[in-house]
Amino acid sequence: MTDSAIDYAAVFQALPGMVALLTPELVYADVNEEFVRVSGRSREQLIGRYLFDVFPDNPNDPAATGMRNLEASLYRVLATGERDTMALQRYDVQDPERPGEWDERYWSPVNAPLLGPDGKVMLILHRVEEVTELIRARGRSGGSRNSRARVLEAELYTRARELQELNERLRQAHSREREVALALQEAMLPAPRQVGLQRAAVRYRPAVGALNVCGDWYDLVDLVGGDRIGVAVGDVVGHGLAAAGVMGQLRSALSAASRVAEGPAQALDVLGRYAHVIDGAESATAVTTFIDCARHVITYSSAGHPPPVLVHSDGRTEFLDQATDTPLDARPDPIPRPQAETTFAPGATLVLYTDGLIERRREDIDTGLYRLADALREHRDQDPETLADTVLLDLLPPGGATDDTALVIVRL
Predict the structure, then answer these.
(1) Among 185, 214, 237, which Cα is nearest to 403's?
(2) Among 52, 86, 231, 407, which residue's CB has the most CB atoms within a 10 Å radius?
(3) What is the pLDDT of residue 155?
């Protein structure tokens, strides 16, 4: 049977469990037949209505938390684009036949995102299983066994609530650390105007859906002697505040070394020695380019980092991979790092990036490199700001990448 022969609307209606589709505003877009039957509401009472107007908390129970817990779960799905499985919930429902009377009900909800072509949450699939009868059946087991069942039921419910509250506190703690790390990272990463570049664009995208921020960074500096600039990117292994702190130290050290070094290889030599004494700098990578705008020459060196891409004005793409070496802390002294040169004509575009832009699980890295080259070649006539946004849109997967991404685009 082909996909076109399947009536997915009929499949949705026939699903055996309660399933609803909610808009990002938490309005019912559709519900299946089982949802209508178990909820005791007609489709007309559900479709187009705000979820918590239809199912508010029991006003007679000051300890009721079902609505608050469900709302928090749904907003987590909207914020992260990831599925959220909730603990067992008591969520009383008003009897549709007897307004003002509330039935004690227990539910096991799961909320999952449905992503649109842009990777954003288009709808939330809200699946809920009612377990009220199971709990009541345990309570009808009779005698001492009835008492024991009630104790176990209460214990299970209490532990489920405690687990959910603990998970929420952990989410909040990680979220605060993420916000601090992002603020620290943003404060330490320079804007293009700091080097007077009118035709450069920079982007930093943290991993979507992850609680940790990684140590990706970029730098643009004026160099001594003539019309020369330095452009670099790097990647620190690790997550959170620690990685952001190491990133700041390495970026600052390379920025200073580049201003006095004879070339990019010497700058990375200095940075490598510094990385040896920085906790958390193990296996950090970086690539730096010195651009002589008057001579139309790029000199470059890489410490274990993916190669920059030079897009010539005729559309030819050149990977700057002739001076690739080990990560920063893995080079034995006093062996110098390699260095190479290439030339360009006015109108060429230089692109530096971190591996979050090109790497995918279970995919050869060359595939990502070719994908990047194709995108740059196709859109090479765009200005740097537009091109940066286009490249991120073309290369990052829907919903965002699982690793941070730094991107620098310079029109030469």
Answers:
(1) 214
(2) 231
(3) 54
